Description:
By secondary structure, this protein is α/β, with parallel strands linked by helices. It is 55% helix and 11% strand. It has a single domain (3-193), classed as Rossmann fold, CATH 3.40.50.10490. α4 runs parallel beside α5 (125-136).
Amino acid sequence: MSLQNRIINHFSDSIQVQQDTLNTLSEVIEMASVRLVSALLNDKKIITCGNGRSAISAQLLSSAMLNQFERSRPALPAIALNADAATITAIANIAHFDDVFARQLRALGQSGDVLVAYADDDQAANVAKAIIAAHNKDISIIALTGKEGGMIAPLLSESDLEIRVPSHCYAHIQEAHIIITHCLCDLIDHQLFDS
Length: 195
């Protein structure tokens, strides 16, 4: 296969995943935005976490809330649990890497907050433990997943939301997570500041 054909295949496959995501998940994305807005209106915060490439998506959401997405507006309360390297390595060194998010969540999370958990693969034990810790603190979950939902999907309660990208390709799952994150940011801004 030529290099040009490989490029065409990457774009075509990505476009197909985006279209499938739009067709199957737009309603749950809307519901997730409403849940986030409700938390913010009740003086609660958005907490995010993820590993590797998913950590970037988690920080993207947190950064857009704390600063801005596409418009100047007041800062909104959000924290990315994966953004503090000193805390993560300290917890991993003393306890276990699986505890790096759950330990922070137990300290920082409050009832009514929302945890937005990103997992583009099946092996996210630290995200799974964060979900368990969130449930123990009456924190609702919005999980962005892919494939079959990995170890995250079975942990979700009926009141949690799962936005499962219909793909088995890590790269395309991640691309969809970024677009979904942009949608959430836009919908939050629209609901809070366009009325």
